[in-house]
Design a protein that fits this description.
heterodimer; A: 103 residues; mainly alpha; Helix Hairpins; 3 helices; 0% strand; B: 144 residues
Chain lengths: 103, 144
């Protein structure tokens, strides 16, 4: 019963990931794509626990899930910081050029 | 392909063995299965909102809330389902899975907030009501 529950749940998770992949594919801005990647990365932690249930090795796969969630969090923070910093640097350069022209 | 079908047969035999040797604690398993199904419902809401909402901030709203709650519910449900006997190992497993739940409870809203702040400082403006009406009118004209 536990194995059938895990199989059905994993199949449903994969089916529900398809709309999120659609949003990553056609997202108008880059932030939409990062959002979809973040959602899929969070769901991968659940999928790792499901795979561990199927192989009867949950105590090993839970550690993988912890490390994967940690990497996902750090990646999301780093990417958002990176986009923020690059855009603001471009704006700063444009403002400096405007100020130089005025002078 | 052959190996794939073989692994599925292996999984099916393991499932029948687990069903035959299942002893007790049916209440915990039923509660865990209900929590997992509820988590799937919330993830369905998050996926539908991620596809259908018109703006980046509304999509962020759907994804942030639905993703966090569905992940927590599914992991807690699996922690209850895999608890077969109340030995030391199973208690340790439950505590580990609850640590993952606590970690996601702390980090998933934080990462959504950082992403939203980056988008707001990038001059990504929220959609106003007039733009929404325009977009809806355009869709209706295209359909009719």
């Amino acid at each position: 019963m536990t194995h059938w529950f895990a199989i059905i749940m994993g199949a449903a998770l994969f089916t529900l990931m398809i709309p999120v992949i659609y949003r990553i594919w056609v997202g108008p801005t880059s932030f939409d794509r990062i959002l979809g990647v973040n959602v899929i990365g969070t769901k991968t932690a659940v999928l790792l626990v499901i795979i561990g249930t199927l192989f009867d090795r949950v105590e090993m796969f839970v550690d993988f899930a912890i490390s994967y969630a940690l990497l996902n969090f750090v990646g999301a923070i780093v990417i958002s910081r990176y986009l923020n910093r690059t855009i603001s640097l471009k704006e700063m350069e444009a403002e400096e050029k405007k100020g130089a022209k005025k002078r | 392909m052959i190996s794939l079908s073989g692994s599925f047969a292996c999984l099916a035999s393991a499932a029948t063995e687990a069903g035959s040797s299942e002893s007790g604690f049916l209440v915990l398993q039923i509660i865990g299965i209900l929590m997992g199904a509820l988590g799937l419902v919330f993830f369905l809401g998050a996926a539908v909102g991620l596809v259908r909402f018109p703006d980046f901030y509304t999509r962020m709203h759907a994804a942030g809330k639905g993703d966090t709650l569905s992940t927590m519910l599914m992991l807690a449900g699996f922690g209850l389902v895999t608890m077969e006997d109340f030995s030391l190992g199973s208690w340790l497993l439950l505590i580990k899975i609850m640590a993952v739940v606590l970690f996601i409870y702390l980090t998933s809203p934080t990462s959504s907030h950082a992403l939203m702040r980056a988008a707001f400082e990038d001059d990504e403006m929220p959609m106003t009501e007039d733009e929404l009406k325009k977009a809806k009118g355009g869709k209706r004209r295209k359909k009719s």
